[in-house]
Amino acid sequence: MITQEQLTQIFDYVSESDIGEELISALKVKHPGLHFSWCFEDDIGATAKPYRESRKFNLYLVNSENHCSCLSNDPDSSSGVVIAEVIDDD
User: Fold this and answer.
1) Staple partner for 82: which of 7, 58, 60, 89, CB 3.0–4.6 Å?
2) Is residue 90 in a domain?
């Protein structure tokens, strides 16, 4: 389970940071017990809906309840966050 408070903290922290491995490491320290990963938005399937969006990145939640990870929009059943970096095509 990921609380709304945690999701707000994560979103705000990512908004103020450079996206990369250092960010992921820092998030793991700040939120032990949660899993974090980073990719580019175009690595995510076209049918997936982000939990929260920004111009710089989108947040996706990960549900790993049944021993198989899948994207979710339900914080109550999620144990991880994917930070999908948005790259401007311009």
Assistant:
1) 60
2) no
Instruction: Please report, in tens digits, the pLDDT of each residue of the chain (90 residues total).
Output: 999 999 999 999 999 999 999 999 999 999 999 999 999 999 998 889 999 999 999 999 999 877 778 888 889 999 999 999 999 876
- Specify the number of domains making up the chain: 1
Cα separation, 65 vs 77, in Å, equals 7
- Phi-psi label, residue 39: left if phi above 0, alpha if psi -120 to 50, beta otherwise: beta
Give the residue numbers spanning the domain of 19.
4-85
**16 lies in a domain?**
yes
